[in-house]
């Protein structure tokens, strides 16, 4: 059973499953586990790991349009190296500072493989779900796509410093708050833009028509890619960029833009479900990285 | 570096470290990571694992005198066995039901070793800390001690069904709420009574005088122990019973007792710090299980 099959199995058991974060009693709660083998390439510093792991959970809070309240992390490693642990905590603290929330610590454990489990908590009176997109709405994405795809390549090539920089990202809490009053549906792009569109389409029972030249490809991925098509492919399918993908009525776009400094690219439109998901008129496969 | 040394190191970085749970903005947050090798003996069912892992975090919420709001868990295993996963979720759901809170799901991950990271969230207007015990206060413990010590022995002897039962416990949320308005200090007994007393003594700058015949030794540990001294030793040092250890002014004991159905044993008194920690007049070593 892969992760998606297991998640489907859980939906019957858990009312809150199926969105970026659970909502209970006005609180938004999300948890993620990351580990060395699958999530932190050789060369990832513990500072970057702390930043990225806590940031990934904060991104889920952002995807609900919530403000962030606090984050915690459990840290497990084969040995407790004091400097490594402090670096992790500093990274976790710094990403929380960036979005005006508090890192309040966690648990220590010993484990053969470096593993971290992070939880972020937020508040939202009216959280934005994945369902709710309506034909005619515009599909938007914050920031740029492909930073993590570029970082992975740069780790491989031994450019660890630049790769670590690209691996640290700003959780889109502020942009999520700006989008929240207007967005009809929202999620983060952690599994890649292509998969995000498929997940939004399934939750909202809609289609999408996207134009590829509107996809905001990060400069870093252009630098490492083998031409434009490869850059687009990496930017749209690798994922882990933790940008927000949202659907917004056309007449609300200017209000969103004036409420945030983060760039917002309009990729295309929400269509009727029978349209399916198209890019430049061709069907977009449900490809992406199934994150373990 | 062992866990305690690492925790000391973190105290400089994290204002919220050093209690059972962090408190931010009226919210109580705690996270724990547990895994096969150290926390789930052979024979532990996934149902029990889900119950126990989520219960351990709820116990930290209880130790702050908070009401529980929600719990999440990240679940990582070498393969996603659907039945095992559902059993885990059912156990997690059931322990949440027991204390009137919501299990709202989590994350799935693949990992060589079965590993779970749980987070529980609660609310407390006036959380009870480990500091605050005053000489003259009575030292109390909820329920009985030694269930987990007995379970471990029974797993070893192949009595898995009974061991699983003993491994599932009721998080003391209700008792914690009853104690909260009166307790001067509180924590849970997850590292054993002996270590809990040392931790409370350090946080509150006090001593304790305990009488061994007041320790509520669970019948299960008497059954497997080699006589009374062995039973007392196992009940006080093994830990993982997730009972509450609290200090309460003598004149508030009846109010606490009338507010909860959970048994409350008075073990002795808080003393001045130079008394140290004594059991029947003899010094109690800071022994216990340092949980990874």
Automatic annotation (TrEMBL), chains A, B:
Positions of the PurM-like C-terminal domain: 134-276
Binding site for Mg(2+) 3: 20, 60, 188
Record EC number: 2.7.4.16
Amino acids binding Mg(2+) 1: 31-32, 107
Class of enzymatic activity (EC top level): transferase
Location of the PurM-like N-terminal domain: 18-123
Pfam families: AIRS, AIRS_C
Residue numbers binding ATP: 106-107, 130, 190
Record field: catalytic activity: thiamine phosphate + ATP = thiamine diphosphate + ADP
Something else known: Reaction mechanism of ThiL seems to utilize a direct, inline transfer of the gamma-phosphate of ATP to TMP rather than a phosphorylated enzyme intermediate.
Functional summary from the UniProt entry: Catalyzes the ATP-dependent phosphorylation of thiamine-monophosphate (TMP) to form thiamine-pyrophosphate (TPP), the active form of vitamin B1.
UniProt-recorded name of the protein: Thiamine-monophosphate kinase
